[in-house]
Design goal:
Blueprint: E1 2-8, E2 11-18, H1 27-46
Antiparallel strand pairs: 1-2
Length: 47
């Protein structure tokens, strides 16, 4: 299993996880994690 996360001050945010079947991370999984990160940042700015 692979996970993408960011650290925001003292908070860890799990952005995306998936079952990794090869050594190379699929490009679409990286893009999905980036989209989740951007969405999380936008929502934090609205608070």
């Amino acid at each position: 299993m692979s996970m993408f996360h960011i650290e925001f001050y003292e908070t860890y945010v799990l952005l995306h996880h998936f079952r990794k079947k090869t050594r190379k991370t699929p490009h679409r999984e990286i893009e999905r994690a980036k989209a989740e990160r951007d969405d999380w940042i936008k929502r934090k700015e609205l608070e």
